[in-house]
Amino acid sequence: MIEKSIREIVVVEGEHDIQRLKSIYPDIDCVKTNGTEISEATLQLLEKLAETRGLILFFDPDYPGRQITHRIMNRIPHCRVAFLSADNARSYNKKKVGVEHADEQSIRESLQHLFTVQKNRKNNVSRADLQYRKYVDAEGAATRRKQLAKRLGLPESNGKTLLKYLNIFQVDPAVLDEENV
Description:
By secondary structure, the protein is of the alpha/beta class. It has helices at 15-24, 40-52, 63-75, 104-112, 127-132, 141-152, 159-168; strands at 9-12, 30-32, 55-58, 80-82, 115-116. Strands 2-1-3-4-5 form a 5-stranded mixed beta sheet, with helices on both faces.
C-alpha cells in the first residue's frame, strides 16, 4: 500500500514520541509540548503552524494526554486529532502507556483515522441513540463502548464522555450501527 506523506505538523508530548514517529515516517515534522507544561511560546508557535500547515494532535492515551488535547483544542480551532487506545500503547512491562510504546501498525492506523474538531456543531448523536444501541444503561455496555471506541479510533470512555466525543467529532449516528469488520 502506498501511503501519502503527512503534510500537517504532528504535535506530541515529548522527544521519545518524536523518535518513534520518525522511525516510521522519516520525513514527518513534529513539535513537542514537553508534557502538560505547554509554554505560551509553544502555543503561539502552534497557532502559526495551524494557519500554514495544520496540526494533528497525537498524545498519550492517559489523563495528561487528554488535558493537553483539550487545552490546545480550546485555543486552536480546526486541529485534527489522532487517538491510540491504551491497549495499543503499553510498554513491554505494561507499566507505562504512551505513543512511544505503540507498535507501527497502531500508529499508522491512528494517523489515518483522524478526527476534526467542530466548534459550532449540532449534536448528531443523543443519549437515547446510545441507549437504543445498548452503549449505555445496559448489561455489557462497557464492552460494547470499548469495541466501538476501538473501531472508530476514539479513546475508551464512559457513556457520557463517549457521547461528547461522538458529537465533538461529528460522527454520523449510522456509524453506531455498522458491524465491526
